[in-house]
Amino acid sequence: MAWATPIRRGEWLALTLILLLAAALRLGAPGISEFKRDEANMMTRALDLARGRELPLLGLSSSVNVPNPPVSVYLFAVPFLFSDSPLPATLYVGALNVAAVALTWALARRYAGARAALIAALLYAASPWGAIYARKLWAQNLLPPFAVLTVFTALLGYAEGKRWARLAHWPLLALTIQIHYAAVSLAPLSALALALWPRRVRRRELAAGLLLAALTVLPAAIGAHRDGWLSPDAWRERVQPGPDHARILSSRALEQAWLTVAGTDIHALAGPEQFRAYRATVPDADPLFALIPLAAALTAAWWLGRAIWRRRIADCGLRIAENQMRNSQFAFRNLHVPAKVSPSNIPAEEERGGIQIVLAAWLIAPVLLFTWEWTQVVAHYFIPLMPAAYLLAGAGVDAGIGAVRAPRLRRALSAGMAALLALIVALQVHSFATLLDFVDGRATPGGFGPPLHYLLDVRAAILARDPADVIVISDEELAPFDEIPAVWGALLDSLPSVRFVDGTRTAVFPAGDALELIAPVPGLRTCPDAACLDAPETGVFPLRPGEPPYALRPAPSALPLADMTPIAPVRFANGAALTGYALGEGGVALVWELAGPGGADAQAFVHALDASGTRLAQADRPAWPGRYWRAGDQLVLWFDLTLPPETTTLYAGMYTVEGETFRNVAVLDEAGAYLAQGAMIPLGS
Q: DSSP assignment, residue 157?
């Protein structure tokens, strides 16, 4: 079979060049990668493990509201053992994907031949989506090498009879599925291997392999039990499709798999406003790129059809032999029957047919899994089939060339195929490199986020000042749910204190020295226009052309309320004291002084009352999260509330929400005794 062929020097050279291409696309310019909420939350979890702060038992939540197992966090913790920057971790993902290209070559060479392997590796190396899915901290981006190893060990163990591979296959399968649920499409291949080569199944080995697989699942099982995920009621309650998602049979899975393998539609990363501008910079080569999935699909169909036909012939031959045996004058006892079936008794063609069935099923299974849209179907669900597609395409091209018997015609066809392959690869590399340059050089709203290297410039400036406290001002404040807090919580993980403020409705003035990082979002009350960026002590960090910059400055100590009316401090039981208010057009601001970290997160309220105490209007909003409070901080909460003309008094305070129970935070006297459920503030006092 193919694996017995020695590797020649020219083949090693070609493979080296292919891997260099794969590395250039996956490791080159690592700062041009996205770093959004998912990447930031993965980094935070991995840092928690690498720094010994926490052993995660569950990973990030999946798109179907089920938490992923923690295996991806464990894998990402490796680079964070050595650095708290996301850049080495991004290169780590790229390196694993370069290894996936090498493994695909090894698998293809063993079972499809040297030329097919080089074609497969080249197509995978140049794949635009293969490179895109190797350049950021996504769990699914770790899948390719594990997917190839899972299939490889299945074939080595059951088609070739290698005991170590049979033992390794099952824990590898379990780990791969735990990295991302899309890899569950590999499980049918394992079942298929058992069915195709039942003589190689050893019960003790299978039990040992399954036991090892179960051990890999143990952390996730403990975490699921801890968080109440193991009951059917929890699944019915929590696992719900999106409001706009209909569970139907559709061709979307085939379409997404096709474009992923072909490397088309990468213009989507330029966003809805800029994708046409990107497409104008590259030739329209989609018809050429479509030849790759077409070749893979035709090869899979050919292999499966041939395997079924040969099995039918074999069954027919077996029946003829049985009939001849019954009619033979020789006694059955005189026949020589091998005492034991061994690999040497199995025809090589039979083994090759079974292997081809598994490899074809590798391409088909992920598409079948999502043809029934039990969840929203997205392109990255088809990362596990990419190695199979390029292997099949390479095998198909190789077989097509080999089928031509005339030497001259075969040489001409080989040269033509090489030229076509070189053209496709060149166009794919060009389209990908142009995309990187495009998204790095202009704003792409709704598409590729600000590249990582822009954020790392801001991070470096902050870390150089070694601040004791950083306040990040944006239009969000809840990590890990909100994007900007998640991103900067991860990037500034090494600092002792990083706090987040929704600057569109909240302002914080810390008692001690602090840096204020102002995100490029509109409507901030503490930095409402470009004028605040012109102060001498403010550092400005541009992003891409068309995007507003980040700003870094010492946190101001003066309240931005020139018309604030101070009142006698009203102390609340959660450590906040109401010290003043301000009235503006269409809004009310309450000023607080904090005594220290708050307890449960609270809601703040303000009511407008007339002279008789009748409530005329009210506004409620979340107060600043209690975990961010520090002693001596001044806090301003703005409320969207228009006061009726007859308003004479404000009634203000805070309350907590526990399920469906609302509890007011009590007002306390000097001795700490209960006074009231809120503060009465006569206007003009």
A: I
Closest CA to 189 of 350, 369, 343, 64: 369
Q: Tell me, what's the pLDDT at 338?
A: 41
Confirm if 136 and 93 have CB atoms less than 8 A apart.
yes
Q: Residue 173: what pLDDT?
A: 98
Residue 303 reports pLDDT greater than 90: yes
Q: Could you tell me which of 631, 415, 367, 627 has the C-alpha nearest to residue 510?
A: 631
pTM of the model: 0.90
| Per-residue pLDDT at 239 | 58
Q: How far apart are CA 206 and CA 193, in angstroms?
A: 12
Q: Give the residue from 66, 74, 91 showing the smallest Cα distance to 184.
A: 66
Question: Is 329 in a helix, a strand, or coil?
Answer: coil
How much is the pLDDT for 661? 85
Number of H helices, E strands in the chain: 20, 17
Could you tell me what percent of the chain has a pLDDT over 70? 89
Contact 424, 288 (CB under 8 A): yes
Q: What is the separation, in whole angstroms, between the first and last Cα of the chain?
A: 94
Q: Nearest to residue 572, comparing CAs of 660, 667, 467?
A: 667
Burial of 162: CB neighbours in 10 Å, binned 0-12, 13-18, 19+: middle
> Quick count: other Cβ atoms within 10 Å of Cβ 379?
16
Q: From CA 543, how far away is CA 538, in angstroms rounded?
A: 16
pLDDT band at 245 (very low <50, low <70, confident <90, very high): low
Q: How many CA atoms lie within 13 A of 409 on its CB side?
A: 7
Predicted confidence (pLDDT) per residue in 580-604, tens digit: 999 987 789 999 999 988 778 999 9
Length of the chain (residues): 685
pLDDT (tens digit per residue) in 327-338 = 554 443 443 434
Question: What H or E segment, with its residue span, contains residue 554?
Answer: strand 550-554
Q: What is the pLDDT of residue 349?
A: 62
Residue type, 403: A
Beta strands in 433-575 (DSSP E): 470-474, 498-502, 506-509, 515-518, 539-541, 550-554, 565-572
- Distances from the Cα of 472 to the Cα of 467, 478, 519, 521, 532, angstroms: 13, 11, 7, 12, 16
- Neighbour-count burial of 677, counting CB atoms closer than 10 A to its CB (0-12 exposed, 13-18 middle, 19+ buried): middle
Cβ–Cβ under 8 Å, residues 654 and 625: no
227, 188 contact by CB (below 8 A): no
